[in-house]
Write a structure and sequence with these properties.
By secondary structure, the protein is of the alpha/beta class. The chain is built from 21 helices and 19 strands. A hairpin with a 2-residue loop joins strand 10 and strand 11. Helix 6 packs across helix 7 and helix 11 packs across helix 14.
Length: 546
């Protein structure tokens, strides 16, 4: 009888109760161990290693114990993963598909002890895929229905929840004025009309001791009551709720609540803010733009990347440069980063937005309801492209760590909560840090940055050369010489000899090229200059390192 080595995987989303002597992870493991014991007649045996992820969401695969388990599976040390329920392993259909592919490659499978699914059988995989697809479809339809309801309600002027603005108290589906806080709001508008800049408003508001709204979360935690910063003042001055309006995405509707600021006055402030923003954009085009990631970038050695610039033909070019290159300028054999600033800022901003969009609201929030899921998704959708929103996204970042092949980005808890209009106490800290693919490519003197999944497309030139190589190889097998093939095809003999090795690429690599999934550096030019080895396994190892 074949011995089946079983590893138990347990997971719990929150850390609540993990300090107990017998917690949820222990209960899951005990149930799985009993199930494995019941299958002893089938050759199942329990491995002693524990793979436990406590306080980690199942919305992603970046979990320490799971990664160790998958590594052991790849090494051939595990034949079967046993879980209490399927959602302990993953809650994402896309992640599930990747897991199944990885397990199949390693000749392993997984089984749920409380659900009748066993991915070792084709019927088990089919049934599970269907159920996961319907579950995902149901979540998406529910979210669409909630979004439509919120849109219709806001059109009628109803307050649909979220963080209560400074100056107001909640009253059912509308707002009432809190006179004490409303006076602070009026003072901030007065200060802007007096000085004309947000920076000056922040400075004088600090002198006057003005504070933000104090909020108490359901768990009793108190936040707010702080001095105003520029982002908070700008958000407050542009919030149409103070003019008696309700905003829904790009539309503004008349609200049922009373205004603190007269609508005409509010409109005048918006015109002034827009004029000031226009002046800033002109200054940016003139080359006086600030480096939005200054002080936030570190490389793999821990060295900071410092903003720098050069001027060529009257044009200013900005860079982020490893500080050691600046400190030891002119010295030989100094390694470090020198990255084009605008490209890097654009790629990082898109990566932050993609991360927020990609995270399920139920994973980003510790307490997720249908209402706050829809509101969170609405706030994320509002973060569209453009210099202002780009700066806003970059302001959420606390630190970025760059190393060859990857970038690790950490978001600031307070700033992210404010941007998403969510109490920071409700945000899952595990989702404020994420990593993505990072690569630099040289094209002449130009450096191109790739962050996240590269948008690789089918390379018709590479495919055509592979086809020609196969055609020429068949001609050689039929008895034709290089000279005869060159004469018939009207190409040089050297070109045939240079290209013919493309006929010996492994089927796996050719399939990836046909689908456009090859490494970004895998081009005809690279293959002609550096012919891959004849062994297919060695080819895959070499090309995967590009």
């Amino acid at each position: 009888m074949k011995k089946i080595r079983c590893a138990i995987y347990t997971r719990k989303s929150s850390e609540e109760g993990l300090e107990q002597d017998f917690n949820s992870l222990d209960a899951q493991r005990e149930a799985c161990a009993s199930y494995i014991a019941s299958q002893k007649h089938e050759g199942w045996t329990l491995l002693p290693n524990h793979y436990d992820d406590g306080g980690i969401s199942g919305g992603h695969l970046e979990r320490p114990a799971l990664q160790q388990l998958l590594s052991d599976v790849d090494d051939g040390a595990v034949d079967q993963i046993v879980v209490y329920k399927i959602d302990r392993l993953t809650r994402s259909l896309a992640d599930f598909a990747r897991l199944v592919d990885r397990l199949e490659t390693a000749g392993a499978s997984f089984v749920s002890v409380t659900q009748s699914f066993n991915t070792a059988t084709s019927m088990g995989r089919l049934t599970l895929n269907v159920l996961l697809s319907f579950a995902q479809f149901e979540r998406e339809v529910t979210a669409e229905r909630i979004r439509d309801k919120i849109a219709a309600s806001k059109q009628k002027g109803l307050w649909m929840g979220g963080s209560i603005p400074l100056g107001y108290d909640i009253a059912g589906r509308t707002l009432t004025i809190n006179e004490g806080e409303a006076e602070t709001v009026r003072t901030l508008f007065d200060l802007y009309e007096k000085h004309g800049t947000v920076r000056a408003v922040v400075a004088e508001a600090e002198q006057l001791g003005l504070r933000s709204k104090v909020r108490t979360s359901p768990n009793g935690r108190t936040t707010g009551g702080r001095l105003f910063d520029r982002g908070h003042v700008n958000y407050l001055l542009t919030n149409p709720v103070y003019a008696g309006k309700i905003r829904h995405k790009s539309k503004i509707h008349n609200g049922l609540h009373p205004a603190i600021i007269e609508p005409d006055r509010w409109q005048a402030v918006q015109a002034s803010l827009m004029a000031q923003a226009s002046r800033c954009r002109r200054n940016q085009r003139d080359g006086s733009r600030v480096s939005l990631l200054a002080g936030k970038l570190r490389d793999e050695t821990g060295d900071r990347l410092t903003p720098s610039h050069t001027n060529k033909h009257g044009q200013r070019y900005r860079y982020y440069v490893s500080h050691r290159l600046i400190r030891h300028s002119g010295e030989a054999h100094q390694d470090g980063w020198r990255l084009p600033a605008r490209q890097l800022e654009d790629r990082i901003a898109n990566a932050v937005l993609d991360h927020l969009k990609g995270e399920a609201a139920s994973d980003l929030l510790l307490e997720a309801t249908a209402d706050n899921i829809a509101k969170l998704q609405e706030m994320i959708e509002a973060m569209k492209e453009g210099d202002q929103n780009r700066s806003h996204l970059l302001s959420l970042i606390n630190e970025i760590r760059l190393e060859p092949g990857s970038a690790s980005i950490t978001l600031d808890l307070q700033k992210t909560g404010k941007a998403l209009n969510v109490d920071p106490a409700l945000i899952n800290l595990n989702h404020l840090q994420f990593s993505c693919h990072f690569q630099t490519r040289k094209r002449g003197v130009e450096t191109r940055l790739i962050l996240g999944q590269a948008n690789q497309s089918v390379d018709p030139l590479l495919i055509r050369n592979i086809a020609r190589a196969h055609h020429w190889y068949e001609a050689i097998k039929s008895g034709l010489s290089y000279e005869e093939i060159a004469r018939r095809g009207q190409v040089s003999k050297h070109r045939i000899m240079q290209t013919i090795h493309l006929a010996f690429l492994s089927p796996q690599i050719v399939k990836a090229i046909l689908q456009g999934n090859q490494p970004t550096d895998l081009t005809t030019k690279k293959l002609l200059r550096n012919p891959p080895p004849s062994c297919w396994k060695a080819q895959i190892q070499q090309l995967s390192a590009l």
